[in-house]
Design the sequence.
């Protein structure tokens, strides 16, 4: 009888384990396996947020238009040498001169390793209020870091940039070079116009439809009014997303 009882107990124990045991995964909201945090580190594809440097917002600036809309230009830095993140959510909030709320929007950006990423958001509705300050924030807990030892992106080189046109309708023409044997398509490009203090006084964005293999293409930017200051430096930056 004791042997039969032991067999029955062993049987039900085996059935119970098979029924209720859950194999540890990287999405079970538990720190198990060889993880160094909850669902991160070890054999999981994502790195633990606490072990990475958070994104740094270098600046965010509103650029007021004349049609009740405001453009925002910002720059975000990823100081991690071997960690990247895709589709990082951010929030931009606009305020007027009395610090009254004007508008807020959400978006996403990619953070390649050891990189500085411009964020240009045109045409935010601001109505009759004039936005004088803009704040871009990123919840560091929402960033899903993953290891990336080498940047896999093909980033075209900016070989020239020229300010042309009348002062009332300025234009910037930039030449982008593709050093690879792969045709680059739909390349987003952002331009920053800075004054002698280094402050951004204008910005714009465009998409270059195609840059031929080992060839060149032009990126053109135009404004319908004068810059609100004297341009001293121009930065043209291709914004290539992570694959």
Sequence:
């Amino acid at each position: 009888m004791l042997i039969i009882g032991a067999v029955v107990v062993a049987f039900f124990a085996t059935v119970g384990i098979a029924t209720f045991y859950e194999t540890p995964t990287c999405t079970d909201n538990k720190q198990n396996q060889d993880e160094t945090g909850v669902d991160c580190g070890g054999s999981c594809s994502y790195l633990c947020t606490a072990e990475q440097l958070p994104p740094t917002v270098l600046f965010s600036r509103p650029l007021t238009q004349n049609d009740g809309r405001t453009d925002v230009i910002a720059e975000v830095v990823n100081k991690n040498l071997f960690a990247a993140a895709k589709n990082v959510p951010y929030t931009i909030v606009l305020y007027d001169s009395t610090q009254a709320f004007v508008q807020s929007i959400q978006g996403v950006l990619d953070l390649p390793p050891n990189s500085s990423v411009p964020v240009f958001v045109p045409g935010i509705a601001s109505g009759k209020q004039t936005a004088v300050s803009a704040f871009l924030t990123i919840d560091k807990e929402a960033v899903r870091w993953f290891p990336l030892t080498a940047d896999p992106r093909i980033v075209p080189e900016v070989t020239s940039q020229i300010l042309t046109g009348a002062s009332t309708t300025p234009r910037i023409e930039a030449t982008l070079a593709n050093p690879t044997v792969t045709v680059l398509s739909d390349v987003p490009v952002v331009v920053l116009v800075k004054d002698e203090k280094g402050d951004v006084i204008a910005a714009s964005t465009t998409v270059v439809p195609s840059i031929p293999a080992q060839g060149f293409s032009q990126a053109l930017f135009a404004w319908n009014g004068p810059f609100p200051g004297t341009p001293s430096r121009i930065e043209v930056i291709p914004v290539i997303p992570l694959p």
Remarks:
- The longest helix spans residues 2-20.
